[in-house]
């Protein structure tokens, strides 16, 4: 089968393997042999009781408590401006010299940070390309923190969810050692299932985003004698700020 | 593989105190994490049942959902390949690497790639391959295979790890966790930024959206799918859910059962290559769907083994795994699920014996978040193995004799009487203290009670004559014992 994709389309058959038809008909034969009916299945309906019920206040409290338990930090800011000042203070406290921003409007924040001597680079401006590792590594090291507006935050898990888009890079919440996420009131939901349902609806409307990432606390590993270590690949510090009253 | 090899590996593991200590520590941690996690739910049992139903539904319509997945991946701009065997899967990945002129590969965890020995094949083509999960990285440096599905390097001590990292860095290192973690971070950061191709496994593919879901705690799954130009995902054909929202339950069951976490630090749900205007993410995405014997299990009594979500809970609870660790099982999957999958994927003839590495206590079934009846399957594999005459001739002879005797009640009673008399020299305080071979090896690790002076038949007879409602009396006497036995 020849396909349209990015760049010149490739012929899947060129890479060998079995044809889809052969592969699936073998499965179909085994399933039919076992008495299963091979038609369009209707999926059994899910439980109904756990739709979103919590108030904003309940969600905010649960989100903050859960994230802090995981080793993250969580704050509430009464306005955008307060949130930006809080970011400035958090960065100065950690001696961060440069940040990378992504998703949403950062112009006001930029002014506040630059005034405090912190360099700000926007994801829109960077040409982050693969291949020249030394250059990229040096650049990545310049970014002491990645700042982003979360697409969702999940109260039950303390998770921050990010959808990839031209304005929202995957690397921003991944490469720098510190991640700071701003969360608007409407982005805070009670359950992970709600996020998955939203994204499924979005996918039906205009195609699925190239990635949905749920970030739940700092990067961790227990691969050395079951001893917890933080920040092995992803950010070792995760800060969330609930931006309210805006 | 011969039974001798299995026994040899088991004896080797039992003699390695450090290994047993490490396995105990890690599995205790995983288990207590899970136990705490389950307490947070009033309806854990209902969730298990629902997760089982989701898996059963998906497998019963696997052809439909795989076709939907393939169509969606292509719609998202990715390519889909089907491999009926491990060799085909390896060949496909080699050709993809060759097509793009790949020189180096960053890999996040993939059990399928371990099944098919992908790393060796890529290395033969002159490609550098780096495992990026910290545990996998450690065992790759050591030239070993994983000993636990979610803690692949749990058998390595920090001193051994420091030694491996010291060779890499060309300097001596202290053995504290932050130092060792920092070395891995630095080494692998370079790998992520230079690798031409990322290779990932697949926790769950989503048919509805053509997505691949990866759960990691370290973030290597994100790095591998965000930075290299090309991403290839290897997926066992059964690792799929119908809808995006089905992930919610299955991810809960997976992480809660594996480590007790509500969610891993990262859940990456990626859907094909980067879209127009995006600056990171792969330029090309290839999904390789692998059969490699899985379809031969469909429609058999072992089909539910395909429901496995690879959480490792059955390993952590298994009294045998906890003593011998993962390597004794001889292949990539260990513990009760490994003792089922290995013979099914690689042949009962040769690998049936690993099903003997089980006490059939059923703890694995109770621990399984999707309720796979692993203990029944272990018996099934033992039966198939016996039917194919993979048992010792002496064992067959004994059981034939036993069967013959059981058909002759008079002879059976006579044998019991003779047994009570013959056992006398070997018995003290109601159990065997020693015995000639082959019973002697049984007694090395187990207790064998002596034949009691009054057997069940005698008790039954005397109860019958004593009681007017014999059944109730016997139930009262024996029901209690059974309850006790279950709790043990």
Q: Your description of this structure?
A:
The complex is a heterodimer of chains A (246) and B (488). Chain A is built from six helices and twelve strands. Chain A is an alpha/beta fold. Chain A has one domain (56-243): Rossmann fold. Chain A has a six-stranded parallel sheet with strand order 1-12-7-4-2-3, sandwiched between helices. A four-stranded mixed sheet of chain A has the order 8-5-6-9. Chain A has a two-stranded antiparallel sheet with strand order 10-11. The relative contact order of chain A is 0.16. Chain B is globular. Chain B folds into three domains: 41-292, NagB/RpiA/CoA transferase-like (Rossmann fold, 3-Layer(aba) Sandwich), CATH 3.40.50; 313-387, no CATH class; 394-422. With 488 residues, chain B is α/β, with parallel strands linked by helices. The chains are: A alpha/beta (246), B alpha/beta (488). Chains A and B meet through helix 1, helix 5, helix 6, strand 9 and strand 10 of A and helix 2, helix 3, helix 4, strand 1 and helix 5 of B. Strand 9 of chain A pairs antiparallel with strand 9 (266-270) of chain B, so a sheet runs across the interface.
Summarize, please:
With 246 residues, chain A is α/β, with parallel strands linked by helices.
Class by alpha and beta content of chain A: alpha/beta
Low-confidence stretches of chain A: 1-5
**What class do helices, strands and sheet pairing of chain B give?**
alpha/beta
What proportion strand of chain B?
5-15%
| Sheet with most strands: strand arrangement of chain A | 1-12-7-4-2-3
């Amino acid at each position: 089968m020849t396909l349209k994709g990015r760049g010149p389309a490739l012929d899947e058959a060129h890479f060998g393997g079995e044809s889809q038809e052969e592969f699936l008909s073998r499965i179909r034969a085994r399933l039919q042999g076992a008495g299963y009916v091979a038609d369009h299945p209707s999926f059994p309906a899910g439980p109904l009781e756990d739709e979103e019920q919590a108030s904003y206040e309940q969600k905010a409290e649960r989100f903050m408590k859960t994230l802090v338990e995981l080793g993250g930090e969580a704050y509430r800011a009464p306005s955008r401006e307060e949130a930006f000042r809080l970011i400035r203070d958090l960065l100065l406290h950690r001696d961060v010299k440069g940040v990378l921003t992504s998703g949403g409007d950062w112009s006001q924040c930029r002014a506040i940070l630059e005034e405090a001597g912190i360099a700000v680079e926007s994801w829109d401006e960077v040409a982050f390309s693969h291949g020249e590792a030394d250059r990229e590594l040096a650049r990545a090291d310049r970014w002491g923190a990645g700042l982003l507006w979360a697409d969702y935050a999940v109260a039950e898990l303390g998770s921050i969810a990010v959808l990839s888009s031209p304005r929202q890079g995957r690397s921003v919440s991944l490469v720098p050692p510190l991640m700071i996420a701003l969360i608007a009131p409407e982005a805070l939901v009670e359950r992970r299932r709600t996020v998955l349902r939203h994204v499924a609806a979005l996918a039906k409307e205009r195609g699925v985003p190239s990635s949905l990432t749920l970030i739940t606390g700092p990067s961790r590993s227990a691969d050395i004698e079951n001893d917890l270590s933080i920040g092995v690949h992803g950010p070792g510090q995760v800060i969330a700020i609930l931006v309210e009253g805006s | 593989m011969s039974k001798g090899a299995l026994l040899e590996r088991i004896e080797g593991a039992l003699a390695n105190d450090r290994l047993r200590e490490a396995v105990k520590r890690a599995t205790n941690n995983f288990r207590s994490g899970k136990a705490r996690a389950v307490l947070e739910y009033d309806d854990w049992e209902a969730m298990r049942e629902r997760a089982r139903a989701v898996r059963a539904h998906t497998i019963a319509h696997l052809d439909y959902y795989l076709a939907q997945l393939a169509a969606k991946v292509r719609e998202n701009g990715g390519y889909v390949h089907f491999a009926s065997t491990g060799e085909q899967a390896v060949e496909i990945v080699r050709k993809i690497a060759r097509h793009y002129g790949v020189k180096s590969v960053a890999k996040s965890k993939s059990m399928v790639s371990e099944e098919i020995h992908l790393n060796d094949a890529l290395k033969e083509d002159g490609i550098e391959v780096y495992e990026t999960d910290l545990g996998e990285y450690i065992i790759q440096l050591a030239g070993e295979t994983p000993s636990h599905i979610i803690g692949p390097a749990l058998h390595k001590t920090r001193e051994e790890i420091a030694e491996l990292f010291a060779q890499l860095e060309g300097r001596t290192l202290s053995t504290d966790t932050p130092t060792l973690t920092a070395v891995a971070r630095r080494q692998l950061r370079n790998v992520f930024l230079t690798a031409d191709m990322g290779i990932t496994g697949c926790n769950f593919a989503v048919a509805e959206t053509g997505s691949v879901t990866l759960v990691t705690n370290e973030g290597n799954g994100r790095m591998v799918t965000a930075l290299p130009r090309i991403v290839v995902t290897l997926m066992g054909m059964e690792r799929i859910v119908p809808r995006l929202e089905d992930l919610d339950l299955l991810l809960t069951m997976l992480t809660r059962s594996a480590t007790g976490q509500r969610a891993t630090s990262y859940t990456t749900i990626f859907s094909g290559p980067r879209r127009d205007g995006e600056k990171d993410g792969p330029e090309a995405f290839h999904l390789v769907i692998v059969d490699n014997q899985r379809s031969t299990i469909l429609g058999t009594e072992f089909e539910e083994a395909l429901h496995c979500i690879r959480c490792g809970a059955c390993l952590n609870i298994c009294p045998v795994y906890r003593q011998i660790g993962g390597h004794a099982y001889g292949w990539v999957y260990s513990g009760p699920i490994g003792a089922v999958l290995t013979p099914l994927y690689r042949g009962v003839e040769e690998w049936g014996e690993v099903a003997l590495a089980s006490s059939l206590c059923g703890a694995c079934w109770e621990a399984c978040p999707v309720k796979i009846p692993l203990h029944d399957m272990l018996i099934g594999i033992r039966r198939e193995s016996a039917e194919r005459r993979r048992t010792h001739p002496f064992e067959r002879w004994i059981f034939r004799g036993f069967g013959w005797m059981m058909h002759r009640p008079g002879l059976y009673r006579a044998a019991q009487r003779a047994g009570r008399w013959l056992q006398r020299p070997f018995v003290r305080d109601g159990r065997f203290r020693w015995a000639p071979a082959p019973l002697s090896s049984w007694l090395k690790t187990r207790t064998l009670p002596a034949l009691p002076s009054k057997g069940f038949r005698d008790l039954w007879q005397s109860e019958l004559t004593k009681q007017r409602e014999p059944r109730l009396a016997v139930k009262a006497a024996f029901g209690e014992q059974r309850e006790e036995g279950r709790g043990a």
